[in-house]
Amino acid sequence: MDPDSFYHLKISKLIAEQGPIFDFPWLQYTVLKEYYIDHHFLYHVLAVPFIEIMGDFAGFKFYTVVLASLFVFLSYIIFKKEKIKWPEVFVLVMLCAPAFLFRISLAKATAFSLILLFFGIYFLFKRKYWLLAIISFFYVWSYGGFLLLLVMALLYALAEAIDQTFINKPLWLKLRNFIKAGRFKVYFFVFIKSLFSFENIKKITAPLAGILAGLIINPYFPQNLKFYWQQIFEIGIINYRGLVNVGGEWYPYPISQLIADSGIAIIFGIVALIFFFIFYKNQNKKSIFFFFSFLFFFVLTLKSKRYVEYFVPHLVFFSAFTFSLILEKVKLGRFLKDFKKENYVIGTVAIFVLIYTVILFPLIMAKDVYITRQTFKGGIGFQLFAGVSGYLKENAAPAEIIMHTDWSDFPMLFYQNDQNYYIMGLDPTFMYKYDPDLYNLFAEITTAQKNDNLHQIIKENFRASYFIVSQSRKSLDFNLQNDGNFIKVYEDNEVKLYKLK
Fold first, then answer.
1. CA-to-CA dists, residue 300 to 140, 257, 273, angstroms
2. Helix/strand/coil (H/E/C) assignment for every residue in 123-180
3. pTM > 0.70
4. Is 501 helix (H, G, I), strand (E, B) or coil?
5. Helices in 33-109 by DSSP H: which ranges?
6. Residue 466 near residue 435 (C-beta atoms within 8 A)
7. Low-confidence ranges of the chain (pLDDT < 70)
8. How many Cβ atoms from other residues are within 10 Å of residue 299's Cβ?
9. SS3 at position 484
């Protein structure tokens, strides 16, 4: 389990017990106390039957497996519908990327978002604009990354304009002697005309209309507008990692590590990229679209690790569409002929790399699956903080505020004990936006930089009655013991609990 998994599970349980959550007093010193919205609402609602029937953890984990399996099945169906050669191979390639397999296996909304996104892409391909608008509406109710579908529509419109201008161009543009002077202006005119065609306007209008409807026809409107501004732009794009200690997924992905964590998919992608440019005349709007989409997510992933769950599928889809087009349109004789002197070395190396990869495919797959299994062994246990939370439920008054050492502890504490309130969680940016000075004070206390007058500072600024200290925070524990106004009332192998006098 990932820390966020406990939050998602708890919200699903609360929805089952009392309906949608509109107030969130559990994070006393964050902006979520002032305007909370459940931006995973449909994801949480769909989890309810699973946890009601199978129990909390078994049900939620099975729900995660169902969603991940549905995305894999959807990928296979899209490959089949698009007549991709060897669809099973590309599905396996995607599943052999350790980073992707890890992310999609987490009990979070990752797989659900991918399902909605790729349904939207498929509707774009098939020009099912009403269905595209509907899926965009539900995307808003399900996941904070709903704007990705609008970006995909823009990229597909761009890909179609390039295809119509430079690859499947009008017959009159193919005439060699047509308008030798001013040829650039002619191509530019055709490109702009194609880009802003009525068909492309419909492509963009459909998801835009669905998104706007999802924002307005929403139980959290209009508070959701302010929340999404912070969630999408301030946390997702701007990111305060230089000012606050954000989660690891928001930090850059070193390119060497990304290559290693992408497994066999990166090899397929590199070879496909080489063939994409060698046989550019044989491409179509769909392969061009996935070229743009995988580059888009590649850049995002280099900025923040969490986007690897989008990068890998788009890289695999790009590889699948590129290889399939070449196999369909280029015969062996033409294939060899197109290897001009400048392409011969690169193309030959690409072919040998691909053959080498296919031969070693079983070994690579086994290695990547092993890496993923080892990664999951370090997951969070179901009973983390159960002991201290049980003590607090029996001894602390309802709504008393509990100080804790790390924002990432909140989901587990919240799941185990919802009768008390906490300082911050989910993302430290929410506290930083609430009060930067208070956030810095919290950081100084919990990292043991401040060691004098702690009792008065915590009482006056945080109104906390108890302080949960992780066993690893030796310096902080030393400071609290030296203060003399903190009484240890509980201890286990995870934490110590101090009551403030």
1. 20, 15, 19
2. HHHHCCHHHHHHHHHHHHCCCCCCHHHHHHHHHHHHHHHHHHHHHCCCHHHHCCCCCC
3. yes
4. coil
5. 41-54, 56-81, 87-95, 98-105
6. no
7. 169-184, 186-187, 236-242, 329-379
8. 11
9. coil
